[in-house]
Amino acid sequence: MRLPHPLYGLYERRLAASLPPAQMPRHIGVILDGNRRWARSSGVSSAHGHRRGADKIGDVLAWSEDVGVEVVTLWMLSTDNLSRDPEELEPLLTVIEDVVGELAAERRWRIQAVGALDMLPTRTAEALRRAEEATADVDGLHVNAAVGYGGRREIADAVRSFLRHHAEVGTSVEELAGAFDVDHIAEHLYTKGQPDPDLVIRTSGEQRLGGFLLWQSAHSEFYFCEAYWPDFRRVDFLRALRAYAQRERRLGR
After folding, report:
1. Residues 213 and 200 sit within 8 Å (Cβ to Cβ)
2. Which end of the chain is more exposed for a tag (fewer CB within 10 A), N or C?
3. Which GO molecular function annotation, any one, does this entry have (predicted)?
C-alpha cells in the first residue's frame, strides 16, 4: 500500500532504523521482472518499460551500499530471453548496453559480466567487457550483471571448464570420477570466489526462480514482491531486508 507523504517518509525511516546491521545479507540477487507488464499497464512501449527498469538499477545499488551489502547480482537477461522477437530483443539489448556503460562511467561499483557472452551479439558482449575493464580497479560494491544468463547453462559451463582444466594436465577419467565433488563445480562457476546469495528478491509477483543462481541459491532466502520492477521502491527493498532478518537461517542444517 502506498502511504501519502509525509507518512510514507516517516514509515520508511522507521523501517530502515529497525533493521539489525548484524543481520544484513552480504550478497543479494535480484530478478528484475515486470518491465513489459509495467509498460502494458502504463500504455507505453516495451522499450520504454525496459528503460524505466534500467533507471531503477542505480537506486537499488545505492540502497544496497547503505546497508553494507557487498555483492549484488542483477538478472537482466536470461538465455531464454534471447529467443524473443528481434523487434523487442534489440531495444532491450540496447538498454542493457547503455545502463551497463552508465554504471561503469560512475566508477562507483565494480562490474562483472555473468553469463554466456558467446551467446550474445558482439556489441553487447563488448559493452559488458568494457564495463568490466573500466571498473576492474574500483573498490566498491561488486555488481554482477547477469546477461545471457541461465542457471543450467552456468553449471554446464562449470563442468566443461573443470574437464578442460584436467584434460590439459593429463588427469585420467578414472581419477576424475574418483575425486570429483561439489566444490569442483563451485570453483568454476561464473561467481567463483564470491559468497553465495543470502537473499534473492524477485519483483512482479512471480514466485519462482526460473533458474537464477541455480547452484548458488541452495541455502538462500527468497522474497517475492508484488511491484513491477520499474515501481520497486526503497520501502519494498527495506521490507525484503526486514523479512530476511526475521528468518531463522538453518543453511541446510
Report:
1. yes
2. N
3. ditrans,polycis-polyprenyl diphosphate synthase [(2E,6E)-farnesyl diphosphate specific] activity
157 is catalytic: no
Q: Is the peptide bond before 197 cis (omega within 30 degrees of 0)?
A: no
Domains delineated in the chain: 25-152+196-243 (3.40.1180.10)
The DSSP H or E segment spanning 169 is: helix 151-169
The pLDDT tens digits of the residues spanning 190-230 come to 999 999 999 999 999 999 999 999 999 999 999 999 999 99
Please state, in angstroms and rounded to a whole number, the distance separating the CA atoms of residues 59 and 70.
15
Nearest of 33, 26, 23 to residue 216 by alpha carbon: 26
Q: Are 227 and 8 in contact (CB under 8 A)?
A: no
d(CA 114, CA 75): 9
Instruction: Give the contacts of 183 (CB within 8 A, at least 6 positions apart).
Output: none
